[in-house]
């Protein structure tokens, strides 16, 4: 855990080499996790209420497919609008990803995950700067109306792999190993919280403890409070998975603790 307080706006954006390490580490961690699952584990319902464990893996396979076959993205969007008209497009798209792999035997799903992500990693690494700068319109992610393809592939995919691995560990009652790059992954979330329209409260100093912990300033001006909470747990809160975080006010105004507890950003 870093002991230096850093203003979130000053966090450097992770470069391609760094994010490749993050993604590779998460892919390997997922392969290790899947190797440890028994037949009943694959069918367990998760905190992603529409999905069991196999569905989460199917969604992640779909993420890789959308990298490998870019034309699959608009095709899935079309199906998402048709099949899930009452749901926001992004969530509906992810449901379609999972639908496409539902019913696949676990051993085949594991092999598919490994094969698709090997290819996706090569594709991402080889994409030229011109392709990476393409602006993608994103429906269903408030605050992220348009995103560069490079940001989606470098930052968001590794974040999604990481957070969904915690989802599965939560489901199975296992300890989540946040991995060697957890602090950098979480720092990128803090940067996005500050840069986007997501931090709506007064300035605070936020101390994140445990795996991936660090100390950050959020908001502009002198902090009105110093607040402490668990790092991985707070990622669950920010992403909307846990609306009842344990947030400790160390000093200052209670409004600072409330701002921390209520901050949300789509992952």
TrEMBL record:
Keywords: Isomerase, Pyruvate
InterPro entries for the chain: DinB/YfiT-like (IPR034660), Maleyloyr_isom (IPR017517), MDMPI_metal-binding (IPR024344)
Keyword Isomerase: yes
Position of the signal peptide: none
Region (Disordered): 1-22
Domain Mycothiol-dependent maleylpyruvate isomerase metal-binding: 25-168
Gene3D superfamilies according to UniProt: dinb family like domain (1.20.120.450)
GO MF annotation terms: isomerase activity; metal ion binding
Ranges of Basic and acidic residues composition bias in the record: 7-22
Protein name in the entry: Maleylpyruvate isomerase family mycothiol-dependent enzyme
Source organism of this protein record: Kribbella qitaiheensis
């Amino acid at each position: 855990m870093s002991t230096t307080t850093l203003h979130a706006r000053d966090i450097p954006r992770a470069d391609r080499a760094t994010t490749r390490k993050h993604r590779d580490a998460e892919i390997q961690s997922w392969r290790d996790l899947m190797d440890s699952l028994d037949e009943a584990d694959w069918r367990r319902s998760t905190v992603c209420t529409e999905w069991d464990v196999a569905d989460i893996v199917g969604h992640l396979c779909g993420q890789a497919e959308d990298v490998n076959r870019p034309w699959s993205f608009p095709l899935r969007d079309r199906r998402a609008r048709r099949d899930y008209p009452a749901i926001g497009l992004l969530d509906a798209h992810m449901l379609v990803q999972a639908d496409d792999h539902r019913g696949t035997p676990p051993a085949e799903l594991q092999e598919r995950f490994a094969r698709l992500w090997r290819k996706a990693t090569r594709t991402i690494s080889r994409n030229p700067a011109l392709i990476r700068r393409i602006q993608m319109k994103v429906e269903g992610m408030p605050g992220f109306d348009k995103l560069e393809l490079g940001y989606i592939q470098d930052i968001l995919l590794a974040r999604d792999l990481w957070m969904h691995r915690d989802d599965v560990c939560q489901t199975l009652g296992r300890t989540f190993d946040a991995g060697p790059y957890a602090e950098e992954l979480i720092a990128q979330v803090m940067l996005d919280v500050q840069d986007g329209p997501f931090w709506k409260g007064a300035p605070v100093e936020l101390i994140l403890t445990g795996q991936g912990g660090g100390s950050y300033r959020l908001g502009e001006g002198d902090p009105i409070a110093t607040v402490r909470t668990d790092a991985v747990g707070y990622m669950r809160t920010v992403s909307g998975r846990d609306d009842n975080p344990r947030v400790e006010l160390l000093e200052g105004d209670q409004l600072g603790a409330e701002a921390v507890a209520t901050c949300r950003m789509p992952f």
